[in-house]
Amino acid sequence: MGVSEFFLAFVFGIHIVMVNIGIALATLIPYLEWKSLKLGDNKLLENAKRLFKIYAATYGIAGVFGTAYTVFLLSYYPEFIGIAGSVTLYLFGIAILFIVLHFLCIVTYWYGWGRFSDTTHLFIGGLLAFSAYMIPFGFRSVFAFLNLPAGLEIVGPSKLGLNLAAALANPTFLPLYLKSIVGALITGFLFVAAIYAYKKYKGELDDPVYEQELIIKPARTSFYLLLIQAALGFWYIGSLTQVPYKFNNIFAALGMKIQGPGPALNLSWLFILKMLFVAIQFAALAYVLTTCKTGLTVKDLEMIKLAAASAVLGLLSGEYLNAFSQYPYFVAALPQIADKVPEPWRTVLARALDLRKANPLTTDPGLIAFTAVFLAVLLAAVIYFIYVIFIKEEKNNQ
Amino acid sequence: MNPLAQWASYAASWDRLLSMIGIEIHWIILQYVLGFSFIVFLLLLIHWKTGNKHYFKLARTLTKAVGLVFAVGAATGTASEFGLVLLWPNLTEAAGRYIYFPLYAEIFAFLMEVVFIYLLVFGWSKLSPKARIAVALLAFVGAWYSASMIVSVNSYMVAPTGIVAAYDPLSGWKYNQGYPKIMLVVPSNIVAALNVPKLQSLGMEVVGKTSDAVIVLMPSKIVQRLAWEAWNNVYVKDSILMLVLNDAAKNNAALLHTPVKNIVDTILVKTVEHVGPYTVTFMSPVYPGSILHALGAALTVSGFTLIGAYGFRLLTAKDEKYKKYVEDAFKFAVYFSLIVIILQGLVFGHIMGEEIAHYNPEKLAAMEGTSSKILSLSALTGSEKLMPLIIYGNPNAKMPIYDQIPKNYCYLQPRPGLQDCRPPLIIHYIYYTKIGLGVLLGLDTLILAFLLIRGMSMPKWLLELNIASPIVAHIVSFFGWATREIGRKPWTIYGVMTVDVAHTPNPAPPALVAIIALYFIGIIIALGVAVWKLIYIPSLKEEV
What we know:
The complex is a heterodimer. By secondary structure, chain A is mainly α. Helix content of chain A is 75%, strand content 2%. A two-stranded antiparallel ribbon of chain A has the order 1-2. By secondary structure, chain B is mainly alpha-helical. Chain B has 2 domains: 417 residues, no CATH class; 109 residues, no CATH class. Chain B is built from 22 helices and 8 strands. In chain B, a hairpin with a 2-residue loop joins strand 5 and strand 6. The interface between A and B is large, with 78 and 76 residues.
């Protein structure tokens, strides 16, 4: 793996973790508001507001690192972006429209708290959650296209087109999308449960209602979602049999080679690692759910934190597995379709879709050092930011 | 001539309109990120020096505003970024490959903005006064650093480094000598395949040599043709390069089956390496004026927004204590706006104008309306006689005449997306409206400052009139950008890439474009209503 791939993987990793937590928070916060209104419980509403601040921070960080990812991608692989931009216009377009709507919802939801009517505010909360689901709908349709370019049409020597219906009917799209959403809910719910488990451990959460709503319920939901996730995982793996290069890079070493290109890599270890993290989550949550009936013990709280950490690591390993199993191609199915593509596109795509062919102007060691130093300094600034906002005490000064 | 129809006649009119709406919405918001963040820093310094709590309060209010507009700006920025990729993928690809550095470096500016703006917003009461000033400094530096990167890319599009324009103010247009030309560094192995005398007869000039390349000035009409061929997957055998290859090269089968894009890429990479990949956009000859003028616009709009808002509050404030605060805020807004509009109009604008005159003479001709086909406001007002002195510093210099620009100066052969090389004359009216409104704003601040200095009371009608001043300032700023962007047509990168080449081969149908445009406008209206309802109305009740 070259430096360009490393930087891409690094910023993508931070982006995707934040996005996943954000999707769950965008679901949980309106739910908590609804619940607080139903129960007339202001403290629950206060917790929803606190979670919203965390959501705003995660969303901001996700946005910055998402932008960094696109800009890095553009700088390292401009020809790929040029082609992807013209072909997948509608798929990206879906994501863009909902990104804009989501931002509007964030602003109006936060500033509208206590100023709009409850019904209006809850409606905005519903839109917040809906748009959070629709952004990955657009992006995952692009990811599915990068598995298998369903709907790609070669219109002429200077033009590629896309059949939108065929692109959305991509066999890898729906399982990938649903798996992503369920995975995001698991990670985000466990993240919230872990925050409140920590609070409980510190003695800052004494009311059993909050214990139930903010620790046990998210943990229980995550447990059931893990079962659904397993089924969706099998569906996604099944769909990958249409992309032998990717499938074989993951499963050939485990004795499940299918006919077609590959394996060129052995990423079975990453798959096993991912499964290990899933197993830890499952075991930890099963333990908590069987013992919590008599109240949460210190060990339960630790198990929840362990499950949350495993969820984040499982998510990262899954995303990296999905990305690197098609290395060095931007489109995993390229080895199986390349010889069917007419010239000049065969030559153009072979060049543009190869991750090893980074922009020669970006391989300068000075740029690599610049990127590394800036990323380090700014990550330190992000950590300081989180410290000041969430941990540091207020000063009584001007 | 119908200037509106002429403007619509260039390629990709619907997508140009959509981009204009999207980027303008982003720019409306960005101006506050750039302007307010600086003003917050300034106010904190003033408060630190004077101890006047009103400045501290104003700084706090503006910090909240920066937090809000930055969030919205990030959304519109993301939409603009993706919009560029989707509507102008070939331009995006070219920018990403050859002038990527400022875009790349901008990401760190974005991260800096997010961290320090929100540190200021949410950590306000947790920071010591000195730390708050330091964070405010970093917040505005982040925003300005971001602008300086993006404006450098835009400057390169307006006048790429190495451009030599087709006009001399003493002798006139130089199209007959092959101008405008662009500097290229051609690797020796490519030069070896070329018929150099033939190229020289077409206007190419050899201006230098390196150890492994030849530095030339290449006519733009050839460069843009090669760009079109590169992004249309043309092979050398079908290219205009066949006209200038030497006999040996014409018989080289491997070369004939090479995509033109490979040749273009090799030359452009070599050129950028020669100029410097990290400095190439900053060396655009219009960069100094562009960045100063862009920042000046942001400060002006921010200043007039404060005049409008606090002028309105002066009309409505009843509580004496609150009124004192509003008076101080209004005073600050007036003096600040007066300073920035003088700088913007007389210094930054002048630098910008001189740069445009030297490097975009066709645009200058359209801006000044030196055409008999339209009603020329410069001729009508008599300002055309003053312009040579103002622009060239020489009363004997000649203004570029629009009607003398050949319709075909930018191409060897016309094609469906490229018929007329002249810039649209509509920018004459846009530019003169901008100048007229800018002068009015300047006069407005002079009157306000005069009344404040003399300690005279503000007439009610003047305060009421000034409620509109932020909108006027936005119109001036928008018309400035419109002149710059619309006036570059039919070029996307002047002298290098035309609009039809930059544009996506898969444009959305006009109806869909209209729906998307309405969607964005709807979102902005919803946001405006929400902000008005949530922020502005309650703030009228705020106490000191």
